[in-house]
Specification:
With 182 residues, the chain is an alpha+beta fold. The protein contains 3 helices and 8 strands; from the N terminus they run H-E-E-E-E-E-H-H-E-E-E. It has a single domain, classed as Methylpurine-DNA glycosylase (MPG) (3-methyladenine DNA Glycosylase, Chain A), CATH 3.10.300.10. Strand 3 and strand 4 form a beta hairpin. The mean pLDDT is 92. It binds a DNA duplex (13 and 13 nucleotides) through strand 3, strand 4 and helix 3.
DNA sequence: CTTACGATTCCCT
DNA sequence: GGGAATCGTAAGC
């Protein structure tokens, strides 16, 4: 999978509706963000470092990092220096284990929340998707309507509309901007 | 409903 | 030593 990955913005859209599971827990990806190589908001912007080295490794692997000293965030690596942040999934598998890890609040709406619900560890950084306990399966058919908006929580390049979500689903991390009304 | 803030780790300047 | 791709809680409107 992803041996000839598309550009990271297309990859971010293409991952909507994909099935993600980690050690028997997971669901369908409903919200993503693209981070490009030449992108001031991307961890890869200044080149490889110990933290971001998975971003320069093989496509289809995980890039996992700690954010704000507290939470973990999961990305799918695209071409070198590109990654897609998984911001929300619709959880449907291993619900009991996920709820045990997150006893209260939204299970998987938000990158830190879903990382906690899936039981991801910093040790999973760089892992290849495609093993039995670490799967990523692209959707059979393209998703329906896709919401587009600016990426969340960044300072630089905040105007790039590289956040994508499935329309009409519950469990997005935050609402998308209301489209202009005609 | 919205906004504000503290928690806490680690990488980079 | 600064600051970060966040979350939960609290307070204000």
């Amino acid at each position: 999978m992803l041996s000839d990955p598309p550009d990271v913005v297309a990859l971010a859209r293409g991952l909507l509706g994909a099935r993600l599971t980690v050690r028997g827990a997971g669901g369908l990806i409903i919200e993503t963000e693209a981070y490009a190589r030449d992108d001031p908001a991307s961890h890869s912007y200044r080149g490889p470092t110990p933290r971001n080295r998975a971003m320069f490794g093989p496509a289809g692997h995980a890039y996992i990092y700690r954010i704000y000293g507290l939470h973990l965030c999961l990305n799918v690596v695209g071409r070198p220096g590109e990654a897609v942040l998984i911001r929300a999934i619709w959880p449907d598998t291993g619900l009991e284990a996920m709820r045990a890890r997150r006893p209260t609040g939204a299970l998987c709406a938000g990158p830190g929340r879903l990382a906690q619900a899936l039981g991801l560890q910093l040790g999973d950084d760089g892992r290849a998707f495609g093993e039995a306990d670490f799967t990523l399966t692209l959707p059979d058919q393209p998703p329906g309507a896709v919401l587009v908006g600016p990426r969340i929580g960044i300072r630089l390049a905040a105007d790039r509309p590289w956040r994508f979500g499935l329309a009409g689903v519950e469990g997005l991390s935050r609402p998308f901007p209301t489209p202009p009304r005609v």
